[in-house]
Amino acid sequence: MGVFLLSSPAFLVFFTFFTFCLLVDPVFGITRHYKFDVKLHYVTRLCHTRSIVSVNGQFPGPRIVAREGDQLLVEVVNHVPNNVSIHCGWADGPAYVTQCPIQTGQSYVYNFTIIGQRGTLFWHAHISWLRATLYGPIIILPKRGVPYPFAKPYKEVPIVFGEWFNADPEAVISQALQTGGGPNVSDAYTINGLPGPLYNCSAKDTFKLKVKPGKTYLLRLVNAALNDELFFSIANHTLTVVDVDAVYVKPFETETFLITPGQTTNVILKTKPSYPNATFFMTARPYVTGQGTFDNSTVAGILEYESPPNSLHSSIMLPLFKPILPALNDTSFATKFGSKLRSLASAQYPANVPQKVDKHFFFTVGLGTSPCQHNQTCQGPNGTKFAASVNNVSFAMPTTALLQAHFFGQSNGVYIPDFPSTAMTPFNYTGSPPNNTMVSNGTKVVVLPFNTSVELVMQDTSILGAESHPLHLHGFNFFIVGQGFGNFDPNKDPAKFNLIDPVERNTVGVPSGGWVAIRFLADNPGVWFMHCHLEVHTSWGLKMAWIVLDGELPTQKLLPPPTDLPKC
After folding, report:
1. Bridge partners of 120?
2. Strand residue runs (E) in 371-498
3. pLDDT by residue (tens digit) across 426-448?
4. Which of 124, 298, 418, 563 is deepest in the core (most CB within 10 A)?
5. What residue segments make up the domains of the chain, in order of their start?
6. What is the pLDDT of residues 324-380, one digit of tens each?
């Protein structure tokens, strides 16, 4: 699965959420070729025109369509001043974590095979805030001849949420990191790049989903927003959730769902049996748990039914129904929705949850502070700078790619393999915050033997206020075996873990003021990034890396880097 952010805005990295890219042999699929020309072009939204970085002049970027088992060759050609990289192949994308970037005027072909996934994923920029405009969906169909575990839909439609900034997002985060304060928020949310009629000057920039009565549609939803979890609903319609993060789930109905940045959700929409004489808003707005400022606005698209032949409906104004979304801070809804997600756990799609655990980890995640530099006035808490950390370690990006340093045995001065396996200084994580809010800094990693079964508990902290953190792990899917509020109790809480049919994901929201427990099998050798998918928190250091060592068999060993892999 992948990873994110880099600390230097000079580097742009794409990420596509493909897992298990390094070990697999191609299965009975075909080879598909894509070319990504990364260029600048002008886009107008909210009556503001600015130059954005895009792929093939499209915003959002082009969709990748493939079947499980297909081989993909994606040629990335860099025409912009920023350096570029895209996820998968020998390196999975993050500059200075798994590879060096493609420099201006250079190109590189990524070669990877899709194994064990079917559903929706997405590719996106992986450095600083460039993914504000650099993203697109990945449609993974089942192998040819293999049906969906639900009725085949009449039509499939990608719906990608994003955030639009009238200002250059790179300037926004650059200023925030310089001053130490919180960044300016976005000016709008978007559906497929369009903000919709609830924003100024945007009625013409509205996504419209035109449907026929009595049909089923598979909506492939992606949250590519930078910093906001989103509630989504379609007025007067019920949705059936069937897939998350390219893994099938037990279907369940809902009128509203929650999706964090980095997550995908496939839902079935059954249209009304006859023409309804109405149109319907589909809206999304943020789920907010932190104390900072946020974009308190709503994006709207329109669900529009095709009118019957020879009817007058198309020439009259139809009533427009609006959905009712949960309150901005409705953690109760978020918790209940998450608890409904369960793996199919069938013979064809088993839930291979590790039943025994070789290594236990306990990570605190949250915000903190770092000192203001001398002769500088900082805008963070009490004159400090905002920071974020895992186990109080704010990750410092190296200047040499971790994966290559690991492969060639040249880790000296690049990283230290002593990331703490548990909180260094225990405290009441969700109670009164400690007096010292300062974080430490370092390029520290966890080293795991091949095939280690891991249980990781991630605990939110209230040091600068409790907040939900969508944590994403590259290189692996994981099972969410438990979650709760307050402080994790290692003596009582594991007894309530679901080891039968827990949902399998690549991104999980650590509950605000609570904890989540995941399990995964470390069977993919390499260096794998883990980070918060709220881009501002990643910018502040809420990230770390795992190194999985080689196994004994040739198929369990990390392959050498391609000869044309970009150099630092």
Report:
1. 139
2. 385-390, 393-395, 440-442, 445-448, 452-460, 469-473, 478-485
3. 999 999 989 999 999 999 999 99
4. 124
5. 28-146, 148-307+318-341, 359-548
6. 999 999 999 999 999 999 999 999 999 999 999 999 999 999 999 999 988 899 999
Which amino acid type is present at position 547? I
Let me know: does 294 contact 337? Beta carbons within 8 Å.
Answer: no
- In the chain, the amino acid numbered 455 is E
Residue 51: strand pairing partners: 42
What pLDDT, on the 0 to 100 scale, is given for residue 149? 97
Say which CATH architecture domain 359-548 belongs to: Sandwich (2.60)
The fold adopted by the segment(s) 28-146 is Immunoglobulin-like (2.60.40)
| Phi (first) and psi of residue 470, to 5 degrees | -75, 105
Per DSSP, which regions of 214-353 are E strands? 216-223, 229-234, 239-244, 247-254, 256-259, 264-270, 279-287, 299-305, 320-321
DSSP 431-457: SSPPS--BPEEE-BEEEE-TTEEEEEE
Cα separation values, 323 from 252, 255, 257, 320, Å? 19, 9, 12, 10
Q: Could you tell me the CA-to-CA distances from 305 to 89, 274, 324 in Å, in that order?
A: 43, 9, 21
User: What single-letter amino acid sits at 277?
Assistant: N
CB–CB of 1/96 below 8 Å?
Answer: no
Candidates 518, 530, 396; CA nearest to 474 is: 530
Decide if 28-146 and 359-548 have a common fold.
yes
- pTM value is 0.94
Which of 77-91, 113-127, 337-351 shows the lowest per-residue confidence on average (mean pLDDT)? 77-91
Task: State the Cα–Cα distance between residues 392 and 394, nearest whole angstrom.
Answer: 6
Q: What is the dihedral of CA 439, 445, 451, 455, to 10 degrees?
A: 0
Q: Which of 228, 270, 249, 209 is nearest to 337 (CA)?
A: 249
Are 353 and 519 spatial neighbours (Cβ–Cβ below 8 Å)?
A: yes
> pLDDT (tens digit, 9 = 90+) per residue, 402-421?
999 999 999 999 999 999 99
Cα(150)–Cα(397) distance, rounded to whole angstroms?
44
Can you list the alpha helix ranges (DSSP code H) found in 271-352? 331-339
Classify burial at 488, counting beta carbons within 10 Å of its beta carbon; exposed 0-12, middle 13-18, buried 19 or more: buried
* Nearest alpha carbon to residue 380 among 176, 78, 150: 176
Contact 130, 54 (CB under 8 A): no
Query: How much is the mean pLDDT over the chain?
Result: 91
Q: Which two tokens stand for residue 43?
A: 């886009």
- Residue 258 near residue 196 (C-beta atoms within 8 A): no
